[in-house]
Amino acid sequence: MAKKYYVVWAGRETGIFTSWDVTKRSVDKFPQAKYKSFATEAEAKAAFAKSPNSSIGQSSAKPSTTKMASTKTKASTSSTATQASNQTVLSQFDVVIYTDGGCEPNPGKAGSGIAVYRQAKLAELWYGLFNPNGTNNTAELNALHQALLMAKAALDAGHSVQIMSDSQYSIKCISEWAYGWKSKGWTRKSGEIANLDIIKQAHELYDAIKDKLTIQHVAAHIGIEGNELADRMSIYAIDQQHTPFSQFKPPLDIGKILALRTG
């Protein structure tokens, strides 16, 4: 049997695989999984560097044991970004926004941070929303809310945008769970919904732009520059006890910023 190369754009792990068993574990029962097989490594690499919508649906060898990925063009939340797939994201979107929140201890002093890339280059850093009695989840949600505000402005200007958050909690709150809570009058049987005010604000904004936007979970603290910079900004907000959400003043010396205290 000829060797196949499986590209996974959205799954438990993303990348190019040569084993269908590994690929299936990544995509099986994964919501809105996006994947496809190719006959050559060159074809697979070329496809992985592009949007899945440009490849899915075109003729190519495919596994017979499962249906191919959805061809919806609607943007969505997707898989955890690793080092390799993160670089692909930067090349695919005009604007990529990394978010992070920190809290010391948890609960305790909290702050939020953002790193904005334009055309694959670091353009802006943001920090603030210090709360002396916050939580890590609240800080993460605050950062994601600010990213959504930035994303809307960029989308309105005609740019393609992706948000990268290392908080599965925040992503699921605003893109999944909020729909059920809202349908029940913002209540749930198990008790009070924590962080409801910021969830409502972020969800309303997300719901308005979700058809044009992708939010992806990014693995934390594995050396992905944007994630690390957002982390430094969240801790910088705590150290500075900075309540407004403000742009970090240039020059953006990445080495010096990464040398700041981590969360």
TrEMBL record:
Its required cofactor(s), as named, are: Mg(2+)
Q: Where is region (Disordered) located?
A: 52-81
Reaction it catalyzes: Endonucleolytic cleavage to 5'-phosphomonoester
Compositional bias (Low complexity): 59-81
Question: Which Pfam families does the protein's record reference?
Answer: Cauli_VI, RNase_H
Q: Which UniProt keywords apply?
A: Endonuclease, Hydrolase, Magnesium, Metal-binding, Nuclease
In this protein, which residues make up the domain named RNase H type-1? 91-239
Query: InterPro entries from the entry?
Result: Ribosomal_bL9/RNase_H1_N, RNase_H, RNase_H1_euk, RNase_H1_N, RNase_H1_N_sf, RNaseH-like_sf, RNaseH_domain, RNaseH_sf
EC numbers for this chain: 3.1.26.4
Name the enzyme's class. hydrolase
Q: Which PROSITE patterns match?
A: RNASE_H_1
Q: Which family does it belong to?
A: Belongs to the RNase H family.
SUBUNIT field: Monomer.
Q: Which PANTHER family match?
A: RIBONUCLEASE H1
Protein name, entry field: ribonuclease H
- List the source organism: Shewanella metallivivens
